[in-house]
Design goal:
This protein is mainly beta. The protein is built from no helices and three strands. It is about 0% helix and about 20% strand. Strands 2-1-3 form a three-stranded antiparallel sheet, with no helix packed on it. The structure holds zinc ion.
C-alpha cells in the first residue's frame, strides 16, 4: 500500500498519509492548519518522480516486466 508524505510549506511539518480508498488526503497541516501541503515521495519509489502521475503513463511498460529483469520483455514473451 502506497505511503505518501505531505509536507507543510509553512512549518515544514510532515504528515504521513496511507493511501486508502476510504481516506481523504490531508490538505491541511495538522500542526498549523496551513493549506499549503505538498506531497513528497516516500519510501515507494516506483512512481517516476512526477507527483501528478499522469505525464509518464507509458514509462513502466518500456522498462521490462516483473517476471524478467531485462530492459525488454523479448525473452519472456510478454
Ligand atoms: Zn504546518
Amino acid at each position: 500500500m502506497p505511503v505518501y508524505e505531505y509536507q507543510c510549506a509553512d512549518c515544514k511539518h510532515i504528515t504521513e498519509f496511507l493511501e486508502r480508498f476510504d481516506n481523504k488526503e490531508p490538505h491541511e497541516c495538522e500542526k498549523c492548519h496551513s493549506g499549503k501541503m505538498s506531497r513528497i515521495l516516500s519510501r515507494f519509489g516506483s512512481v517516476s518522480g512526477n507527483s501528478d502521475g499522469e505525464s509518464f503513463d507509458g514509462e513502466d511498460s518500456s522498462s521490462g516486466c516483473s517476471s524478467c529483469s531485462l530492459d525488454n520483455c523479448s525473452s519472456c514473451g510478454i
